[in-house]
Design a protein that fits this description.
Oligomer: single chain
Number of strands: 10
Order of helices and strands: EEEHEHEHEHEHEHEHHHHEHH
Structural class: alpha/beta
Shape: globular
Distance between the termini: 50 Å
CATH topology of the domain at 3-175: TIM Barrel
CATH architecture of the domain at 3-175: Alpha-Beta Barrel
CATH class of the domain at 3-175: Alpha Beta
CATH superfamily of the domain at 3-175: NADP-dependent oxidoreductase domain
Bound molecules: NADP nicotinamide-adenine-dinucleotide phosphate
Radius of gyration: 20 Å
Strand order of the largest sheet: 9-8-7-6-5-4-3-10
Strand content: 5-15%
Length: 328
């Protein structure tokens, strides 16, 4: 396993992060522990979690498994999405952040969370309040680095500006969705992260399983894109299935496990620190773990990138992308 710097923090993390969203849900406790042990054997020291995963069970299980080796790990959690029916059990306001971080620390059985993400931009809370609340937690040692997930680039930059102006701790890590059929991050998030030297840990490198090849010849009996409404909406478009089919055919013909190749492609973008891999059993995990053995040459990277449309530029001035010489 390779280790990489987490942005400008000086902390070293494995080139794969393991996502614990399946702990206590798609994977029961026994399977979750096996997944944890196998990822440790593979050299992973980086675990992504959230207060909402399996209603807190995921944090509890991660806390239990890591208890004897907590100091060797870099762990994350998140706050924003509703954790109950109370109107205030949600959001990135000071009140909820302070409430949720205590609950997460208790469930994880630790005194600090290495990277604490705001799980989604909060339109109801001034960014300054969110940034200040995170800074207070950094001062108290309850979180070490703030992070932002599912934010637009301008929202992250606005927060970084506030942090700089007010001398507060700014976001150090960003967590966008990124895979071969969801490439929006290429337009602004990834270049911004490179310009600001922020760590990037993209989630869903397999498009929820779409890029593993198991959807190439019709719908399987089980799977995220069969039983999870949110994922069906996210990855259900015909062109995505077509891209995934072509990609997995190419992978198999070239002698790669499509899952391994899809993760390797997401990890090969120069802005990316570590893709977050997810699995419900050991067989699935092995596929994603094999990604670290693949050498993504520039030619292979370009070839894979042709299987889905390159997203539009951030401005309408796009003609320079064509081969036409406009000015002589
Ligand atoms: N910040 C956010 O908003 C956010 C959102 C989502 C996820 N995340 C994080 O990112 C992690 C990974 O996300 P993800 O689960 O969406 O990632 P993903 O890698 O796109 O999908 C993983 C899923 O694909 C299927 N799969 C994996 N390997 C397979 C294989 N070899 N063959 C067939 N199917 C396979 C499994 O689902 P099935 O068995 O159900 O098909 C597995 O749970 C999560 O654990 C979480 O930590 C963050």
């Amino acid at each position: 396993m390779k280790y990489k710097l987490l942005g400008k923090t000086g902390v070293q993390v494995s080139a794969l992060c393991f996502g614990t969203m399946s702990f206590g849900g798609d994977a029961d406790e026994g399977m979750s522990e096996l997944l944890y042990r196998r990822t440790r054997e593979a050299g992973i020291n980086f675990y992504d979690c959230a207060n909402t995963y399996s209603k807190g069970k995921s944090e509890e299980l991660l806390g239990k498994f890591m208890a004897a080796e907590r100091d060797q790990l870099v762990i994350t959690s998140k706050v924003y999405f509703p954790t109950g029916s109370d109107v205030n059990e949600r959001g990135a306001n000071r009140r909820n952040i302070f409430l949720q971080v205590e609950k997460s620390l208790r469930r994880l059985g630790t005194d600090r969370i290495d990277v604490y993400f705001i799980h989604h931009f909060d339109e109801n809370t001034p960014l300054e309040e969110t940034v200040r609340a995170l800074d207070d937690l950094v001062q108290q040692g309850k979180i070490l680095y703030p992070g932002a997930s599912n934010f637009a680039a301008w929202q992250i930059m606005k927060a970084l500006g506030i942090a700089e102006r007010e001398h507060l701790a700014g976001f150090q890590v960003v967590q966008p969705m990124y895979n071969l059929v969801k490439r929006q991050a290429e337009v602004e998030i990834l270049p911004m992260a490179q310009a600001e030297n922020l760590a990037v840990i993209p989630y869903s490198p397999l498009g929820g399983g779409l890029l593993t090849g198991k959807y190439a010849s019709g719908l399987p009996k089980f799977g995220r894109l069969v039983d999870n409404k949110m994922y069906i909406t996210r990855f259900g478009e015909d062109w995505m299935f077509e891209s995934a089919r072509k990609f997995s055919m190419f992978a198999q013909e070239a002698g790669y496990d499509p899952a391994a190749l899809a993760v390797a492609w997401a990890g090969a973008h120069p802005a990316v620190t570590a893709p977050i891999i997810g699995a419900r059993n050991i067989e699935q995990l092995q596929g994603s773990l094999k990604s670290v053995e693949i050498d993504i040459t520039p030619q292979l990277y370009e070839r894979i990138s042709t299987f889905s449309p390159q997203p539009d530029l951030a401005t309408d001035r796009s003609e320079e992308r064509s081969d036409t010489v406009w000015f002589k």
